[in-house]
Write a structure and sequence with these properties.
Immunoglobulin-like, 48% strand
């Protein structure tokens, strides 16, 4: 975070001045320049970009390099600042530098259409950002009725690649203004998860304490306090709330807001609250890391990197998915460049080669970074599975591809990207010394933009496509492969990847060979019986653990536990083909009787036990032992001593009903010899 302001002047400015916003622009209109704005020189280099590189949200403004030495400005509308002495210009930006030196980026102001007065300028020698920049403006242009500002580039514009801009505003800050900048809780969770976020101090006064509140779907309200802070204007604070997000499988609107700043409501409530969709996933699987390399046979650094990267990929070929896009630079570029590769390049903002993307994020092209990404990616769970098959093709024929996806959460605004590649090419040799190239993209299906998909939890989606490979760069028609990529369009994160099987046939058996409760086979289980009723002893409050063993080990078993008793645990079984589906249901009821409000009066140990069970507080009590079918396996009408012996019973879970003249309670214990 850059803070470019004299703080004591801002504090003085706040006396008797009401916070006010004069202009805000997030480039969401789709027009460039936006309404009321103008461009001074090099109009064609300014565009709207469907990216969020500056740190805001897509779309954003983008300036593209040009081989020229010039000045170009994005100029704001005119504003009346009569009576004001100081304002703040704020914007997010990211500079993608190329050669460094001989140019600058900056901000300037003017009034009456006169000369520009620079208020911030940087001469880059490396990339900058993304950063959220605040600039205090208090020159002679402030106070005028025709105030304007601009964001400019000046110098040799061949030495930069792109400049991204977003969320531009000119305003007078409030005295006390905590802005909830983001909710950083990951949108897919599979257990208790902390609620986290970032607070930005957009006010004049330092923030010394915060109160953050949150709730899911308008339910229970949680409050966390943070004290001993010192967040000055322009600074951020990363918070973690005390209470965990812990809910059953479903999708939730997580609303988080700043309820107090320095013990009071702040002066600008408009930026205090955010909402984010959080999905509690029904299942997790391994996520196969995807590497996408942008390279060229005219690129010497590509050859150097590939000396290590290609053997590494061959060693890890069973663990990763790999696609390479040959680029049309440097120089004449690779002979196998295609416009589809260019679209994929623009999607990621690729500005040089070699450029490596891992699961949708930039990875440095050195083997230390590759190994580091790989290690982390292998530990990242996946929230979807897929199977894919493709037909055998000969020269000039059509390839048929079928992909079936099984999501374990609701996926909105996702893409299915299918890439036909050749395992090894040799005829695109150029100038960098490489003589063969692996996993080179030949065609994207149906094109480089992929297929829009929206999916619901545990609802299989099958997509069938055909692609004509005539006119592509394929050298050997029996050397093709197909990569499948499931990707979040906005964040670019790849949630699953892998390869299609040539003429693949997948099994359709979705039955279970076992359905167990707390490790013991449910009485009367058969594969074709889909519903079971279990009666639990009175006082039982803990939902038994249900597990299933598929008949086909390649089938997928998903257990959705009952959220309370009485209730039902659902076991979804999907065959290897991910289309064939059976649902087993276990319904739990509890014998009516005295509840378990007296559970703390009796303790049992050890738990689990190998046979002997000690009971504290149960002397002279009536102790009855049930198995999971409800059968009495032992009975002690008036317990003498403090222990019972279960060593003659088989392994499993048992319920101990303990009754006295004052109370009845039920305890659960696991027996493992």
């Amino acid at each position: 975070m850059n803070k470019l302001y004299p703080f004591f002047l801002l504090m003085a400015m706040s006396v008797g001045v009401v916070a006010q916003t004069f202009i805000t622009e997030n480039f969401s209109s789709g027009t460039m320049p936006p309404s009321g704005w103008t461009i001074d020189n090099l109009n064609a280099q300014w565009s709207n970009s469907a990216t969020a590189t500056a740190g805001g949200t897509a779309p954003e403004a983008k300036f593209t390099w040009k081989q020229t030495t010039a000045v170009s400005r994005l100029v704001s509308p005119s504003m009346d600042l009569t009576g004001y002495e100081s304002v703040v210009l704020r914007f997010k930006h990211y500079l993608d530098n190329y050669g460094g030196g001989q140019y600058s980026i900056g901000a300037a102001t003017r009034s009456g259409g006169g000369a520009w007065n620079i208020v911030w300028e940087v001469a880059p020698n490396s990339s900058i950002g993304p950063e959220d920049l605040l600039i205090t403006v208090e020159n002679g242009d402030v106070g005028q009725s025709d105030f304007q500002f601009c964001l400019f580039l000046d110098g040799n514009l061949y030495n930069m690649n792109y400049w991204y801009l977003d969320d531009v505003s000119l305003y007078i800050p409030a005295n006390l203004d905590g802005e909830l900048q983001s909710i950083t809780t990951y949108p897919f969770v599979n257990g208790p998860t902390p609620v986290t976020g970032v607070v930005f101090n957009n006010g004049l006064s330092p923030i010394t304490s915060l109160e953050i509140q949150w709730q899911a779907n308008g339910g229970e309200l949680f409050t966390s306090g943070f004290s001993g802070l010192n967040i000055n204007m322009g600074d951020t604070y990363n918070f973690t709330c005390n209470d965990y997000f812990n809910y059953p499988i479903d999708s939730y609107d997580l609303q988080v807001w700043i309820s107090k700043v320095n013990g009071n409501a702040d002066d600008n409530p408009d930026n205090d609250s955010l909402t984010k969709e959080i999905s509690v996933v029904s299942h997790i699987v391994d996520r196969k890391p995807l590497f996408e390399e942008f390279t060229s046979s005219t690129c010497s650094p590509c050859a150097s990197f590939n000396l290590g990267f290609v053997p590494w990929c061959n060693t890890h070929m069973d663990d990763i998915t790999l696609v390479k896009y040959q680029m049309n630079w440097p120089g004449s570029g690779d002979p196998y460049y295609t416009e589809e590769g260019g679209v994929r390049r623009d999607y990621y903002g690729v500005t040089w080669v070699p450029w490596l993307v891992g699961n949708g994020s930039f990875v440095n092209t050195d083997m230390g970074a590759v190994n580091s990404f790989y290690s982390g990616a292998m530990e990242t769970p996946g929230f979807a599975s897929f199977v894919a098959t493709r037909s055998t093709v000969t020269k000039g024929t059509t390839m048929d591809i079928e992909v079936t996806i099984l999501p374990y959460a609701n996926f909105n605004n996702f893409k299915l990207v299918v890439v036909v590649f050749e395992n090894l090419t040799t005829q695109n040799v150029a100038t960098n010394g490489e003589t063969e190239f692996e996993h080179v993209m030949m065609k994207m299906v149906p094109d480089a933009n992929g297929t829009d998909i929206n999916m619901s939890d545990r609802q299989p989606l099958t997509i069938t496509q055909s692609v004509d490979l005539a006119g592509t760069n394929v050298e050997e028609w029996d050397d093709l492969g197909v990569a499948v990529i499931i990707q979040d369009l906005a964040s670019k994160e790849v949630f699953q990847s892998g390869y299609a099987v040539e003429n693949g046939v997948f099994a359709s058996d979705a039955s279970l060979s076992e359905l167990n409760m707390d490790g013991v086979l449910i009485p009367g289980f058969t594969s074709d019986e889909l519903e079971y009723n279990i009666e639990l002893p009175d006082g039982t409050t803990e939902v038994p653990l249900i597990t299933g063993v598929p008949t086909d080990p390649n089938a997928t078993v998903i257990v959705v536990p009952a959220s309370a008793l009485p209730g039902s645990t659902i076991v979804d079984v999907f065959a290897e083909d991910l289309k064939t589906h059976l649902t087993y249901t276990v319904n739990f009821t509890v014998i009516e009787g005295v509840g378990d409000q007296h559970a703390d009066k009796i303790s049992i140990y050890p738990n689990p036990t190998s046979g002997m069970v000690n009971l504290a507080g149960a002397t002279n009590a009536h102790v009855t032992v049930f198995n999971t079918t409800g059968m009495i396996v032992a009975d002690y009408p008036s317990l003498v001593g403090h222990s019972i012996d279960l060593s003659t019973q088989p392994n499993g879970v048992y319920f101990l009903k303990v009754g006295t003249d004052e109370f009845v309670t039920t305890k659960r214990i696991s027996l493992t010899h």
